[in-house]
Amino acid sequence: MEKKNTIKMKCFRFDPNNDKESHFETFEIPSNGAISVQNCLVYVRENIDPSLAFFINCRLGFCRRCLVRVNGKSCLACTTEVKEDFMVEPLLKEKVIRDLWCDGL
Amino acid sequence: MDDIEELCDKVISTDLLIVGSEGAGGHAAIEASKSGIDILIVTKGKIGQCGASQMAGADFNVDGLAGKELGFEGDERDSPDLFFETLVREGLYLGNQKMVEKYVEYAPKAMKDLMDWGMKIYSYESAHTEEMARGIISSGILWVAAIRKKVKELKIPILEDTMVIDLLITEGKIAGAIALDIISGETILIKCKAVILATGGWHRAYPFNTGPEDLTGDGVAMAYRAGAELISMEMVQFCPITMVWPPKDKGSIILYIISEVDPFGKTIKLLNNKSERFMENYDPTNLEQSTKEIVSIASQLEIEEGRGGPHGGIFFSLKHTRKRFMDMLIKVASHRIKNEMKDTRYEFTTLLPELLERMKTEDIEVGNGAHYMGGGIKINENTETSISGLYAAGECSGGLWGAVRVASACTEAGIQGKIAGETVPKYVKSVENSVINIVQVKEVLNRINAPLLKEDGTTPNELQQKMHDISGKKVGLIKNGKDLEDGVRKFEVLLENDLGKLYIPSSKNKKLNFEWIRSIELRNMLTCLYISTRASLLREESRGEFYRKDCTHTDNDNWVKTIVIKKKDGKCDIRFEKPIITKISLPQGKLTYQEAIGVATASLKRD
Question: Which structural domain, as residue segments, surrounds residue A74?
């Protein structure tokens, strides 16, 4: 049987148009079977907050544009599996257009 | 007239607008640049990092003699005529034979371009395991990298992360287009004499698919809105053995790819939830080595009859093999991928070894993902559509394949890109710019802005969910008249009712507004689905990749004809057209589906 549990994603949020500074928001993601960072982000956008900005396209490591930092380390959101609570930040905070989407991705 | 300049945030003028930057669009731009006309590429992502080309296997096809001339092993038994015959026969005769002739003629030319541009090639082999060796194997990543390098070298202007919304037509001719910068939210009026659409398929309209996020049928839908004819929209190919579970790997076709390679192909078993090797009931002689269509349909019938897995698939199994054999497989595969091919693709370097390790003790759940759109914007052998100045190349076009995509879609993209790049400059040089119709511009802008102005209604997420519910249940691999009728009615409601209620709850700011972009894409996806479902309901037979449970015969007496649809007075105007013949006459008689597939697609067999 697959284990059903919940993963907490601490997610960087920043909208330079409205926010003075960035902040973190924690989302609870139901996890059932191996999930990627990108699966968590899509879950948030489809079920909790559709305004969350992040890059997604090929979903399988081809386009290499979904670069983020997970617990401080840079990686592709689509191919990085998460098994426990984690923190996700943009690749380059100084280049954020909104949330996890940076200029130059 | 000055007004027009103020309606959009930016105005750009060019001779030729190319929508899409990859296998078809990039190739077209490079070819067209030889003529000296002004070109602008507008692409929804970044060149080399968007669309489906990057994800291709990728195999390219040329006839065996041309293969030899290009410096490969080739196959002397083969000829352009034999290749042509295979394409027509295995496409079950619905292909436009003039286009097929051009495919065969241009395949080596487009291939030579790619080799000249430095695309690395892994090997020459029988890619679709044809009777003849016709496959040149590279990878999607290497393909788009070569195109990107050439486009940059030629300094062809390009707007990235920009989505073309609609075409502008004046007196039946292309006058321009309206685009949207996804990041800044700015609208762009592009004045041009000609447009080449190279926007790929509408994969994302289906809940389970093998395509990237950006394939939302934009080109097909905008061509339809502009009044262009669409053809064979019912021909949607589903790829068997696509991963349905776990979520991280959903949509990957890596197991399908390896199932076509020895020694995997002969070793795998496909099992239902009772651990039965169900292919014994469908094709006892060939089992899992049966044709791709039979394997897909058999798997789907098992699923629909309640013998599928917990996530809606069947099982790909290697558990019956010895551990030593699996260890050997892992070793051989990783040596070949890492050392010989020096492949960097995640699916090959990481996912495949991970899956093989897992398969020592567990089975992997796989199913049929929407994979390739066989129909699209109706073009002729010169890539011309039914609208002056509008051209289409690659997967968004239709007419080449019949009822089966017999050969390489990568080659299709290359040859049609090249042909469009040769054809369009002549047209551009023969016409003056058309005057842009201000009413049209306003209509488009009002339409896309409407969801931003509303305070309540339906959200894009909700509409997407509704759309996927219908496309997943009513127009999947196995179709039937009742579901198709229901699908047509339901899509009609979404198009006429729900689309108009769309509103964007999260933010009214246009900058990087995912929900807003999705609201525009939803109209395109729903348009493609609706037309595809209408065409599917009309075709009362089964043929190649098109299968109806309520009409399982391949009916050559009544259905060796294509379905052509265009917009007229706001509605679908439907006509039937006999495929254009050059050399091979059309067959008659009724066959069972298996007979038709067995006779016609001998070379699609997995060996």
Answer: 4-102
